[in-house]
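S.,

As promised, the 6-O-phosphono-beta-D-glucopyranose run. Input:
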Amino acid sequence: MSDILTFPKDFYFGSATSATQSEGTYEGDGKGQDIWGKWFDMEPEKFYNEVGPYKTTTMYKHYKEDIQLLKQTGHNSFRTSISWARLFPEGHGEINEKAVAYYRDYFETLRKHDIEPFVNLFHFDMPAALQDIGGWENRKVVDYYTEYAKACFELFGDVVKKWFTFNEPIVQVETGYLLQYQYPMKVDAALAVKVGYHTALASACAVKEFKKLDTDGKIGIVLNLSPAYPRSNNEADMRAAEIAEAFQNKSFLDPAIKGEFTPLLVELIKKHDLMPDYDEEDLDIIKKNTVDFLGVNYYQPVRIKARDSVTNPDAPFLPTYYFDIYDMPGKKMNPYRGWEIYEKGIYDIAMNIKNDYGNIERMITEIGMGVQDEDRFKKDGMIEDDYRIDFYKGHLKWLHKGIEEGSNCVGYQVWTPIDCWSWLNAYKNRYGLIELDLETQERTIKKSGYWFKDLHDNNGFEL
Ligand code: BG6
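Predicted complex:
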């Protein structure tokens, strides 16, 4: 007889999406524009197949039916975000009452179906009106975000008990201000530092507002953690991995959980003369307002090697000034997306949080396997995604081992419920437990969706 891997009682099983990626009705019912629509209108060719945020899963219209699908695929929890620009079309000031009615009913419907809503305030979707005044580059936007966060807690705090301030804040620093990959497409190390600082501060300001309300809820942050493994144990590679770890993971872990910035990063930022303007009062807010729990998004690790040499010492400072990505021979790859698969990474993260961050309560808030042209796996009308089931099982085994060794992990939410639009990649990579036909909007549960239901119902799976 085979063994069953059982998870702790009341373990959260579910999935995650974000407002911009799932709602549809991009323009409608009073929603203001955010940076995605603004950018798409300017440069549609940047988006895969020129599909922008106007064409998504339409959960805004279909959330009631979609919540039935969540039930059918074993959800007792679900994470999504509020669209800041839907609630505050100008980013601050007047509230859009239609947005209030929509989110209230959405969250109440989840609850009625015994699905715990986890709600995130910011998932890469700055209101265009605020980007026009500099977005996260502008300290004033921290105040507008705080106003927005406070409104959300007051409007929905009776239904939503689990909040997140941000999703993957390092991504907007990296892709928007260092790598020229996402809007506003700048390469400016000083601005990158400033944006990172303002985001960490905004997160702490939201925590502060939340704590004032003295509710029975909890507030956390979602971070994409990618363990940085050195190519070798020679001194230069180890140092390079240490810097990569500080930049990629500790940059937000430290302020969110310890209330202070990573000493190594501060040292490098000072060395390159990139310290942002700050005042002591703001540092005090960060110090005193740490999160209650942590959401971890894990897709793949980073393999790091020391740079052979710094060829141009006058080049603008980038974290990659100090390290290079190492293409490790023989690593296991997702053949349908191109990312590394390294299941043990999820365990290494668990041990790191346990040992270095006081074993704070945490859950997996995203993990997923993207697949291109997934139709090729369709048999008799259903996508048979055994590769995805194996991917989840492989990671769950390591997650379970971490829990057995004392890691305080309370849930596993996969990316994503229904195939969704994904920023520049649009519909290139499909991740869902449920297939979306983009033309008809028809939803069909994949094999992994049925497997996930069994996982939830059995609170574990057979090895
Ligand atoms: C995650 C983001 O990091 O990656 C999601 O939080 C995103 O918003 C997901 O959709 C998948 O990205 P991609 O580029 O493979 O579609």
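Residues 20 and 305 are 36 Å apart (CA to CA). Residues 189-213 form the longest helix (25 residues).

- D.
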